């Protein structure tokens, strides 16, 4: 070990320490950006609703804001395809499906404004919207047309 210790120079140690500290920079940036996201005021009338669409047509609306417990239901198609949807507390997910790729199941639970789960083989889309119909959070960015 001593024969390798003389090969390490002062600048080697400085560079390793500097790179280690810089590796935490993205964590700090994203934590700061997340803390600056606007939250809805306590008395706001906007509630989150999960809109479930099958083949482009609205199938069901589920209130997420204030939901407690676990509710499960199936979306069945005529050809035997199914998606089992689970609403747990204020989040919704597809817990089981008989599609081949299982991408919709692996997405996990969603519960924030604008998040979506899509099952392409079964043409099922779950989108979290506000009760006023907004699909994306208002981040204050104005794009001129």
Note the beta-strand portion.
25-35%
Q: What string, H for helix and E for strand, traces the elements in order?
A: HHHEEEEEHEE
Instruction: Provide the spatial order of strands within the biggest beta sheet.
Output: 2-1-7-6
**Spans where pLDDT lies below 50 across 5 or more residues:** none
Roughly how many Å apart are the termini? 66 Å
Structural class: alpha+beta
The radius of gyration over CA amounts to 23 Å
**Principal-axes shape call:** elongated
Instruction: Give average pLDDT, whole number.
Output: 87
How would a textbook summarize the main sheet?
4 strands, antiparallel
DSSP strand count: 7
Number of helices: 4
Q: Helical content, roughly?
A: 10-25%
């Amino acid at each position: 070990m001593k024969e390798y210790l003389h090969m390490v120079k002062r600048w080697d140690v400085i560079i390793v320490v500097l790179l280690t500290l810089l590796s935490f920079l993205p964590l700090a940036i994203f934590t700061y950006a997340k803390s600056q996201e606007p939250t809805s005021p306590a008395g706001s009338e906007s509630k989150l609703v999960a809109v479930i669409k099958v083949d482009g047509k609205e199938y069901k609306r589920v209130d997420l804001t204030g939901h407690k417990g676990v509710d499960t239901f199936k979306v069945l198609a005529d050809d035997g395809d199914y998606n089992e949807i689970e609403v747990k507390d204020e989040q919704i997910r597809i817990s089981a499906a008989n599609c081949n790729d299982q991408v919709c199941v692996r997405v996990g639970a969603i519960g924030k404004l604008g998040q979506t789960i899509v099952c392409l083989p079964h043409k099922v889309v779950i989108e979290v919207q506000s009760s006023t119909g907004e699909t994306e959070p208002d981040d204050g960015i104005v794009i001129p047309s």
